[in-house]
Specification:
Blueprint: E1 18-24, H1 31-40, E2 46-53, H2 64-81, E3 91-92, H3 109-120, E4 127-131, H4 136-144, H5 146-152, E5 153-158, H6 171-175, H7 177-185, E6 190-193, E7 203-204, H8 206-213, H9 218-235, E8 242-243, H10 247-253, E9 261-267, E10 270-271, E11 277-278, E12 286-293, H11 295-306
Parallel strand pairs: 1-2, 1-4, 2-3, 4-5, 5-6, 6-12
Antiparallel strand pairs: 7-8, 9-12, 10-11
């Protein structure tokens, strides 16, 4: 029997080690690579059981399917730099297109894997799905087995903008609004990390990247150089800073005593097809909404973990 939204509780950051799947469009930008590495370097709280690859479509890809394939290859590259080839069999290709509507899943190895993992878990030991791209794979999994996903998972999603932002046309959300509607309307426990106005505070500079990462190990070198190269394509000669967005979604798993993020409980808004939020007054589940980032302690923890000796 499926849950109703009245049964949902807003998630609290776990106080123990939990099983985690990262759903990522790794090649889309430069921040997913940081998030993947940070997750794998945080075994004290996160037992990473799988990595699922989300579609994306922008100037770095020729289609959502091409974006997904490029992200699959990039995830394998990061695993190689980390000496974590053991994780390669646990990386799953995701959707090659976006949901056509709220009722039709897009079959993929990633969606099937998410359902299978959800079925192996339970309400007392849920699977945490940290999603940092278009949420197509997660929505498809909900549509494929709503009961397992609603009872046995917690979804942490970086998507949308701050609730009072003029629009919610953030990249992750606007790519697949029907998928976002599935997730926000479902009884799956949800954490939302909005981008503009919240996570946008989590930015760094070339000088900080070089000071903390350059020359420390192959992974740190790649992350440093890849970020600088990416930003200088459009910001060379300016006093740029770069947001490392997706790390904050992983940080929620580590957020004991609110050391990295500030959160509150709110009724779930609804993403609409016109790029706005609506705020229904009835029949909405409570979600955990991140409204602030503690930049210095989070970057300190991130940089420290990235530069530890890789076994």
């Amino acid at each position: 029997m499926n849950l109703s939204v009245a049964d949902v509780r807003a998630p609290q950051a776990p106080d123990r080690r939990v099983d985690v799947v990262l759903d990522t469009d790794t090649y889309n930008e430069i921040d997913d690579q940081f998030a993947l590495a940070y997750l794998l370097r945080s075994p004290e709280r996160a037992n990473t059981v799988g990595i699922t690859i989300a579609p994306f479509f922008n100037k770095k890809s020729s289609s959502p399917a091409d974006g997904m394939e490029k992200s699959y290859a990039e995830a394998l590259k990061i695993l190689g730099l980390m000496g974590r080839e053991d994780m390669i069999p646990h990386v799953y290709r995701g959707s090659d297109r976006y949901l056509p509507n709220e009722n039709t899943p897009v079959p993929s190895a990633a969606a099937t894997y998410l359902v299978e993992e959800a079925e192996r878990h339970g309400p007392e030991n849920p699977l945490y799905v940290v999603a940092i791209g278009a949420i197509t794979n997660v929505a498809s999994a909900i549509l494929l087995n709503r009961e397992a996903m609603e009872r046995n998972t917690v979804v942490v999603w970086l998507g949308g903008h701050r609730l009072d932002w003029p629009d919610t046309k953030e990249f992750n959300m606007k790519q697949d609004i029907p998928a976002a509607q599935v997730v926000f309307d479902s009884a799956v426990p949800l954490v939302q990390l909005p981008c503009a106005g919240v996570v946008s505070e989590f930015s760094t500079t070339e000088w900080e990247l070089r000071a903390w990462l350059q020359g420390k190990n192959p992974l740190a070198d790649y992350l440093c150089q890849n970020t600088i190269r990416y930003v200088e394509e459009y910001g060379k000669g300016t006093a740029w800073s770069k947001c490392i967005w997706d790390v904050t979604a992983v940080a929620w798993l580590l957020n004991d005593n609110s050391r990295f993020l500030l959160t509150r409980e709110i009724p779930a808004p609804r993403p609409e097809l016109d790029g706005s939020y609506s705020f229904p007054t009835e029949g909405r589940k409570p979600i955990t909404y991140v409204f602030g980032v503690r930049r210095a302690p989070l970057f300190t923890d991130l940089f420290r973990k990235l530069t530890e000796e890789i076994p």
